[in-house]
Amino acid sequence: EWSMAAYRDQKIADIRAQVGDGRVICGLSGGVDSAVAAVLIHEAIGEQLTCVFVDHGLMRSQEADQVVSLFRGHYNIPLVHVRAEELFLSGLAGVSDPEAKRKFIGKTFIEVFEAEAKKIGGADFLAQGTLYPDVIESVSFTGGPSVTIKSHHNVGGLPERMNMQLVEPLRELFKDEVRELGVELGLPPAFVGRHPFPGPGLAIRIPGEVSKEKCDILRKADLIYLEEIRNAGLYDAIWQAFAVLLPVRTVGVMGDARTYDYVCALRAVTSVDGMTADVYPFTSDFLSRVATRIVNEVQGINRVVYDYTSKPPGTIEWE
Ligand code: XMP
């Protein structure tokens, strides 16, 4: 009979067989997939694994610290935390095209990762938290000709350049199965249940040019939105929810003063694998509460709108 516990044991055996006494390096993204992959591999080969967390400064509020303390404190897994916010933000200055942002972030991520791998003396294997839908999406976009809608940078390039073999223990799994495996491995359910977060992070939730100031504004709005979603008990019913900071300023009024600030768009969808998605139907009370809190509490935003587009024709992210 199939069970997640048996699957875990099988994967541990597979990883041991593949890796032998080789050394493995794993890039943590801050997300669930790479964390589950890392913990699984750590169970299999212990100290032969080193994790590298390239912190591009484009994470949500407190997220980087949570990942670092989870790995260092809870699991005692060797983790290199590379603080590279300035490198990424300075390189993103003046870049507004979505694919150009992704390319820069992907390339810089690889460079930083490579440099860290060298510092720790290299490795024979590269571990990645690639899921089954990533495998399919990187082959072709379903339901149409083979066109690249968005280049997800977490799959290609690195192993060839670094002359390493891939270890991808989640390749057969869907997101819900990865979560189940994470719980099986003892990861906190709240961590495992976190919504997916794209590799390029907040950079693709700020259409147009990215700056530290905009990232900080967006982090505050996003935190309020997610806090309200959790308080309403809706977090687990939603596949992804996040705020987007639009590159548009509109006129508003606060007290008796005129304001001229950014617009924030809220997105929330249900989905099984991210390939198609439906809009989450919040009540108007809920949306009003979030809009009021964001405009009152976040300096720089004076208007909030809700995105009512399903996928297709929209995509989940705005870029
Ligand atoms: P879209 O916007 O294509 O998103 O409907 C589908 C799923 O993919 C995530 N996404 C990304 N993940 N790098 C990633 O690692 C990316 O460049 C990227 N773009 C979108 C998105 O968050 C959603 O879960």
TrEMBL record:
ATP binds at S29, G30, G31, V32, D33, S34, A35. It comes from the Bacteria. Keywords: ATP-binding, Glutamine amidotransferase, GMP biosynthesis, Ligase, Nucleotide-binding, Purine biosynthesis. Pathway: Purine metabolism; GMP biosynthesis; GMP from XMP (L-Gln route): step 1/1. Residues 2-194 form the GMPS ATP-PPase domain. The keyword Nucleotide-binding applies. One of its GO terms (molecular function) is GMP synthase (glutamine-hydrolyzing) activity. Its EC number is 6.3.5.2. It is an enzyme of class 6 (ligase). It catalyses: XMP + L-glutamine + ATP + H2O = GMP + L-glutamate + AMP + diphosphate + 2 H(+). Homodimer. Catalyzes the synthesis of GMP from XMP. This is GMP synthase [glutamine-hydrolyzing]. It comes from Sphingomonas kaistensis. The lineage of its organism: Bacteria, Pseudomonadati, Pseudomonadota, Alphaproteobacteria, Sphingomonadales. The gene is guaA.
